[in-house]
């Protein structure tokens, strides 16, 4: 099958590379359509990093009125819209030329509903959407995303709680499709040496972007041997004891694997949109072979058995209590990490998720009128 994969931002390369790799392993041809390079190809954007950043964020809305009310974006809005129009035209032309059997849109900030309708007029492609965020979270979404839901043949979501809301928004076929792990990614990562374990390791570790919610949870652990890695923590922790726990900024996959494998307890701290669900770390951490301490949610309970595969908490007090307990219980921690690792690779890989996605499309796709 020929599959056209629309990518919002190719610099955020984890999810789309995992999907594409899995689909190719299943024998399908996957062709990328990358939104940002097409937008950036406009002459007025070619040599300006600042304008490119304005264009990227001009597609989003941070709050009810949108960041287009910020004067640089407001001034550049006609140029952004012009570039976006050209990108939509290019997307239609690409679909018409390639005639893929399946088009997968990951998020789709810049796609107009009428673009999807035009593609349906010139191809027989099945068009589906997957959004790794909550489309109602205006920090990472916009009205294009919401208005297009009714046009897609299928909409897939990582959250059970979003299924009904997306249906209420007009999507006709909404499917639950959890995140997963790429079984190969961490096999190629080198295990840390004894020296690297000292460099990267800590009793408790969190790797991820800094934000106020995560800061609040970590503050209950600030007197312990805690390591924090990831961007934006310095700006969130200026007046916090956590400043002393910052170990580094953004890190690559190989370094992250060394950090996880060198540490005893790896935290999975949820963002607000994931509080009742799960996130990519749900499978990322056990796929590396690390021990995970995560929020107690119904979806985590679907994937793993608490006390056998992973440890869970429901409050800051329980988070601290569980962290201290498992720091001191090496054998129990290792057995749980091994069990979760095996379960992840057996049931929760992107090969299995893409197989399910294609099965649901084949099962429920009606003939095009």
TrEMBL record:
Domain Spore protein YkvP/CgeB glycosyl transferase-like: 219-358
Family matches, as InterPro entries: YkvP/CgeB_Glyco_trans-like (IPR055259)
Gene3D superfamilies: Glycogen Phosphorylase B
Pfam family, any one: Glyco_trans_1_2
Annotated protein name in UniProt: Spore protein YkvP/CgeB glycosyl transferase-like domain-containing protein
Source organism of the structure: Candidatus Falkowbacteria bacterium RIFOXYC2_FULL_48_21
Phylogenetic placement of the source organism: Bacteria, Candidatus Falkowiibacteriota
